[in-house]
Amino acid sequence: MADSNVKVLGTWASPFAMRVRIALHLKSVGYEYVEENLLEAKSELLLKSNPVHKKVPVLFLGDKPVCESLIIVHYIDEVWTSVPSILPSDPYDRAESRFWAAYVDDKFFPALRRVLVSTEEDRKAAMAELLEGVVLLEEAFRKLSKGKAFFGGDNLGYVDLAVGSLLAWIKVIEKFTETEALSEAKTPSLAAWADCFSSHAAVKDVFPNVDKLADFGLKLRAKFSKAAAAAAATTTTTD
After folding, report:
1. Of 5, 34, 151, 163, which residue is 20 to 30 A from 45 by alpha carbon distance?
2. Nearest 10 degrees: CA dihedral of 93, 95, 75, 197?
3. Would you give the distance in Å from CA 219 to the centre of its chain?
4. Do the bridges between strand 58-61 and strand 64-67 make them parallel or antiparallel, or are there none, so unpaired?
5. For 9, left (φ over 0), alpha (ψ -120 to 50), or beta?
6. 116-120, 135-139, 146-150: which range is least confident on average?
7. How high is the pLDDT of residue 179?
8. CA 197, 199, 200: angle at the middle one, nearest 5?
9. pLDDT tens for residues 45-64?
10. What are residue 10's DSSP bridge partners?
11. Under a CB-based contact definition with an 8 Å cutoff, are residues 98 and 90 in contact?
């Protein structure tokens, strides 16, 4: 049952909105979900609630908006203190989790995005960077999980949400490039973790269909290509 005070503004294809919804599920918090169409004009609600970045997700607690997915997940963990805790209680473990979550957003996701929407030449370099990142995450998983099922140990944690929210998009990239990013041969720990993550009770209802996501990815690629061509044409006419 939705809590009348809790609302999430997101879009079904956004890995960042997915993080927020999983965090709320982990805490057994009901919420109202409002879908934003990223292929169309941004809604007045989005522009008003996140005027700086103008991006989803936005969490509303009453009339107070909170923006940026990792900040929202941290906020959820602090507001709803019931178990499971999303961030570790140990200060060093918590710092490690924040480090790897920041790596995912600052390095790993940009490479994934470039594979999806950039030119053919840049796409190859981005794919190489993505595959290097997967190897780093395999090593991080072995360290953080301490031999257990998730980055967070026995339960989903902060890094699980950061990385796991990108799993469906990784599968789309594999489909587009015919390259296996996660494999039992090269990344056995991540491959096993991916199955555990996607089947988790807090995840499975919001994990997007990969074929539907691939279709969306093609539309997104076309949108970016059109914008890039228009920008190039403008540059040419003003030179």
Report:
1. 163
2. -50
3. 19
4. antiparallel
5. beta
6. 116-120
7. 95
8. 65
9. 999 999 999 999 999 999 99
10. 35
11. no
